Amino acid sequence: MNVAIKCKSCRFDKCILAGMRIQTIRGFYSRSLPEIYELIEQKRNELRAKGKYIENVETKSETYIKPGSLFVNKDNLIIDFLISVEKNAKRCQERGAISLEAIGFVLKNGFFKKPPAALMEDLLLIVDIGKTMPSFNELDLSDQICLLTQITMPLSILLLAYYSYTKKYNAVIMPTGSGLSMALGFSGEYYKGDKTIAKLSKKVFIDSMEPFTQVQLTEEEYVLLRAIIFCHSFTDGLSKQGKNCC
Q1: What are the NR LBD domain coordinates in residue numbering (predicted)?
Q2: How far is CA 1 from CA 18, 60, 102, 125, 174, in A?
Q3: pLDDT tens digits, 95-140
Q4: Cα(68)–Cα(22) distance, rounded to whole angstroms?
Q5: Which domain holds residue 192?
Q6: What is the pTM of this model?
Q7: Are residues 44 and 105 in the same domain?
């Protein structure tokens, strides 16, 4: 697309002609996905009437949505949107290999001697995923903080566990391509002899993988499960208005 085009209407037309992906649209939180689809289809028809054509019509992205009947399948649109968000999140999640020096530091000093950058990145990623949820954006700031305070750590483990499951590991691994288990960070010199830590580490980073393997969780089921956690209306501390939004 020609980024030199400064007119918003012209840029929007160009996006439509290039095959706009409805799943990547952010904003329009007061509208449902079918309504957004109808608006885009209306604009597309206007461009056709002017003699213009849809670019890359034979090679549309697999994420392009076309209704199978006269009615848009709302459930499929929502799931397709959530999967698109997940694919973008996975690209952000995958990081370069961890250095031997960093591994040695963790084994000697534990995970929290120095705030782990990977954990901070995961927490920020969860916040960014939350912003794609219409219900999250309807919450007041205080309710957003309340919700995130209670769901970010469970979601962080879920995010890492599902990533490990898709890579066919039996333990939660670091998203570095190295295959190193997260449990490694709690098995070094710093935690040596601490049976409680060893027990909890096994429960969180090894035993937690069993349900994924047993159930064979699909991508659709995973993104729906994550969305349900983001819409947890029974979170302690949420205002009455916040519970209604969720």
Answers
A1: 86-246
A2: 8, 16, 42, 28, 37
A3: 666 677 777 887 787 777 776 676 777 788 888 888 888 788 888 8
A4: 16
A5: 98-245
A6: 0.60
A7: no
